[in-house]
Amino acid sequence: MINTAFLAARKTPWEVIFPNLILLIVSLAAFAAVIYLVFLLASRVNVRVQEWLKYAVFLAPAVLFLLIGLVYPTLRTLVMSFMNADSTEFVGLDNYVWSFTIPEILIVLRNTAVWVLAVPTLSTIIGLSIAYLTDRMKRPGVVKSLIFLPMAISFVGAGVIWKFVYNYQPNPDKPDIGLFSAISKAFGMDPPNWLLEAPGNTLLLILVMIWIQTGFAMVVLSAAMKNVPDEVVEAAMLDGAGNWQRFIRVTVPMIRSTIIVVLTTTAIGTLKVFDIVRTMTGGNFETNVIANEMYSQSFRQMNYGQGSALAVILLVCVLPIIAYNIRQLRRERAER
Amino acid sequence: MSTRKKARDIFSSPIASAVAVIIAILWTIPTFGLLVSSIRPEKDINNSGWWTFFTNPSFTLENYGQVLFMGSTTNPPLAQFFFNSFALTIPAVVFPITLALFAAYALAWFNFKGKDTIFFIIFGLQVVPLQLTLIPLLQLFSKGLVIGDTVIIPDLGITGTFIPIWIAHTIFGLPLAIFLLHNFLSQIPKELIEAARVDGANWFTLFSKIILPLSVPAIASFSIFQFLWVWNDLLVGLTFGGGVKQVAPLTVRIAEMVGSRGSGWELLTAGAFVSMVVPLIVFFALQRYFVRGLLAGSVKG
């Protein structure tokens, strides 16, 4: 009964796509038309009007979007983090006390800390090593492309790829379809139920993020290595520095600032990681992280207070990085 | 150049190259396994490892046919989500880049007080986690903005359409786009701008005749970046799509398929590859520009 009602009510894909396609075309056309008209009119008015019109046309839209879409919501979230679930009354620090006392949330905070420490360090170290190894290769193109490739894959796609790798076969009589289980058995080990067993499962999720981020580190660091002057490298060689010493004493110090950029960028990306955890374990089995818990609290439990508090904790974690970046930029500009 | 080449020849060691090749192979195996699995018949995928494909090959496109074109009673086929991803991504690339180019132009070439302050704030906004904006922004879309009794933004009734997702991506893409394009535009020689001004070009013709044509490479680089970012995004699509299947992108549907027990590996592997194919094509075809964009600004909020 219900099923047939469903079938009758369900639209065919084309019935859904068609109005959406119209909306898409109309929106793009309207956007282009508005800009065209504004330009047409603006270049005809007199110069004095143009002097203020130029701000209204070029600067105001982006600034308004940022004010309404980023600045206001951030401030509002700060306020909401001190309010109850439906933001009707103030509750003081309750949401923060909750964040730092409930055992489940403490696990979430611990996991996030592990993520933020492990992913940037390991992906930078691996990326740096690959950059150094390929720096001397004659044709590094294919090797680099393959390692860089996961950057183009969504976290959701990566989640599916690795969930398949971590697949566990509970029935001992059936052959394994997960690569990890098959390899363990080949070495005579009894494979665990990979994604269910804490704390190893968090490390397995972290591995996915490292798999994605290493390519980024490699590309950026390898570009920086190309800028290390040959004279410096040759001087080190003449002084009898071996491969390893040249790497540690010459290459790494020379590209130090780029390494820091890679570390901080990866750390920021890692703090916000949500898709991997959500896709692979749904945050269960002690694998949850702040970004995913923030989503669950806000949009599953509909507890805006606790969700906002978790978001603010994320902000507090990135604040030092923001401050550092702005200081760096100021310095760069002053040098110019 | 010649010393560089010489140094390279001396440095290049077969062992280092071999290690790099091995790492690259290890890095590719998981993706390769998914791709191989997606073309195996259902029975094979679920009963033997994908590596047995090479000793016992059997090939089918049925998984793709099923996942792309056959919906269920509750879920439309992936083809529809595939369209949605495109419909979401195109404006979510065009809108922020246009607005960002405008703002970058203003910040790079107009002389006004507070220019640097605005620029630094925008730069700082790049790394503000999206999570901070989700709830208030969602309420803006569903209820409008009312302070006291004054309606500042009315409820526009756009929930459940593409519009909130486009706007959200536009907002989140702006800071990085403005930063990168500003860096690019401020390198245009001052003489060029001044000469055009002396010739009587106003700020608007200056933009369309000089700034826009010159910034095509920068726009291309950033477009690829934003395209991959929007196409691969889950959080924004999930939050601002309002849980409506008519506007949900591929990532939302694939994440749902992973969560539900109903989907076997034959559909998941094929579905995941469907969601990956466009970014992979973009990646391989335009890798050079992508790398350029990445190097220009490696901070994204």
For the CA atoms, what is the radius of gyration of chain B? 24 Å
The gyration radius over C-alpha positions of chain A equals 26 Å
Give the N-terminus to C-terminus distance of chain A in angstroms. Answer: 73 Å
User: What's the overall geometry of chain B?
Assistant: globular
Give, in spatial order, the strands making up the sheet with the most strands of chain B.
Answer: 1-2
Which blocks of ≥5 consecutive residues of chain A have pLDDT under 50? Answer: 1-8
Number of strands of chain B: 2
Offer a quick outline of the entry:
Chain A has 336 residues and is mainly α. Chain A has helices at residues 2-9, 13-42, 47-80, 94-101, 103-135, 141-148, 155-165, 179-186, 200-226, 230-238, 243-254, 256-271, 275-280, 290-300, 304-335.
Protein architecture, described:
The complex is a heterodimer of chains A (336) and B (301). In chain A, 75% of the residues lie in helices and 0% in strands. Chain A is globular and about 75 Å long. Chain B has 15 helices and two strands. In chain B, a hairpin with a 2-residue loop joins strand 1 and strand 2. In chain B, helix 4 crosses helix 14, helix 5 packs antiparallel against helix 11 and helix 13 runs antiparallel to helix 14. The mean pLDDT of chain B is 88. The interface between A and B is large, with 126 and 129 residues.
